[in-house]
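Explain this protein:
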Amino acid sequence: MNYEIKDGYKTNPPRQMMQTKDDAQTFQLQVYKYVRELIINNQLESLLDIGCGMPEKLKLFIAPICKKIWGVDHKNVIDEIVKNESYGFGTWIDSDTFGVELCLRIDVILAADIIEHLENPIILLNSIKEVATETTFIVISSPDRETLNNPNGPPNNLNHVREWTKVEFIKFLHLNNFIILQAFWVTETANYKDIIVLCKVRKDV
């Protein structure tokens, strides 16, 4: 299955990575800044960050303006988060129990540059659809393959299983019953651009 990526594209095998605090302070800054403005402009109160990593950006950009924050990641990441008192602003959930612990209304679901790491990205999208309502804003981002100078794969970043172009990514989300509200690029570093897609889930299918 190519997940709407062009025929002949080569992938990497999946790897589990542990994000460092330095990584957490460096990558996806523009994505979190965008989410911050989304929360402010729409007077939203709750956010779920899937694949949150070490939550430095949540602490910097989201915690000061958001009443309720959940973060989901692998158990080893969650274990490190809960050791740090400065992350007491959130509720941290082991990805093995994701969905079980969430029964409240969520205004924003964020998956920032996580989907490219997954062997089967459909699992992530289905998890999002399970906890989202028709009013939930969903922000999904991923590096744009066209700015990474490796059009046929596999990704140069060995932690990435696959990378999409903007056109492929929008089509992939649309075919999986997401309503696209916005899709645009942001420059994260001099080396690449992130695709940011703001969407909602289609519940009438």
The beta strands are 46-50, 68-73, 91-94, 108-112, 137-143, 178-189, 192-201.
